Amino acid sequence: MLQSVKTKLLVPLVILVSISLVTLVTLSYRQMRDAILDQEQVGYRNIESIVRNDLEAVFTSARMGLTGIIHMPDIQQAFAERNREELLRLTAPIFEQAKRDGIEQIQFHLPPATSFLRLHQPKKFGDDLSSFRATVMQSNKEKKLVAGLEEGRGGYGFRVVAPVFYQGEHIGSAEYGMGFNPKLLARWKEQCGGEFFMYPYASSGVAWQKVDKNKPLAGTSERDPLAVDAGEVKKAMSGKGVHSVYLNNAAAAVLIIPVYDYSGVPISYVKANLDRTGILKQLDNVLRDSAIHLVLSLLVLGVILFALIGKILGPLNRISENMAIVAQGDLTRDFHVQGNDEVARLGHSFNTMLHNFRQLMGQTCKVARQLIDSSKSLNMLWWLKMSRHFFELV
């Protein structure tokens, strides 16, 4: 099959340019896609920071309040003298104020872990807590402040336990306790969007009510529509940072943020359900724009290559047309090619060849005429000689 020089040049160039453009556009798309996804992960880590900072703020506030109580001399003396009525009188107004700040219980313990006074249940005391209140045991044993999430008889709660001293002698411990405040989850929802839930993970079984790991302890919505596989939860709890899971064809993201007890063991987690439709729309827009840029670039470069090759090969086409005319016998043609490139030199060479060929043809015609004239002269001489010979015979 006959192929023109333009086709032989244009096809490989278009293929090469197409491969280069596809590669560049693909790399550009991947970079933009990765940038969007990286920014999404940064947002997830920011959510984790907000959650952890707010939880730490809860403990910090509780530490400050508890520290103020255990350093009051009157309270220290009443506790040292085991004067429950006086201790209740001194701390009851403090508890009323603390309840407005989200504190649900204030409790005093005798070493190692015997309840002495519960401000939230003043008539209940003297029970041994050593079998399930590890924070109390550790605080009295090591005589240091202990804070963290802990499961008690009433369920999960944030606990801050500090040792109490009187005249340099350790006399027991005091505790601030609070549950999961829905206002905290609501603030996360307002700041970050989505729905937030607090789930239990590891239960010691000490709570009066059985802990259902599939039921949230608190949440910004009555129902959690996004169920996460237990394997994903386990993977999240074995790590230290936020763990993300995509659901509903990646239209939703679930963040799992482990919450630790006083010893650093994860026993609960914050679950955030986030909408990813905006991210998916950005990715679709990037893909669409990349495809449009690729098609337009291919069309523009194709037209440019076609025009350039046509301009470059135009003189060659004219030479070919003139040569066809010369081949039919018209030797009067001249090849007028401008420039100093290979095609122009080819045209000049053909002009020189035609000029030489015309000279050769002219010389050939001249010699032919001379031969004809000579032949005629010889023929006349022969006839004259024959005529003379004939007359001599007669």
TrEMBL record:
Coiled coil: none annotated. One of its GO terms (biological process) is phosphorelay signal transduction system. One of its GO terms (cellular component) is plasma membrane. Keywords: ATP-binding, Cell membrane, Kinase, Membrane, Nucleotide-binding, Phosphoprotein, Transferase, Transmembrane, Transmembrane helix, Two-component regulatory system. The chain crosses the membrane at residues 9-29, 291-313. It catalyses: ATP + protein L-histidine = ADP + protein N-phospho-L-histidine. It comes from Desulforamulus profundi. Residues 310-362 form the HAMP domain. GO terms for molecular function: ATP binding; protein histidine kinase activity. PANTHER family: SENSOR HISTIDINE KINASE CPXA. The lineage of its organism: Bacteria, Bacillati, Bacillota, Clostridia, Eubacteriales. It is a multi-pass membrane protein. This is histidine kinase.
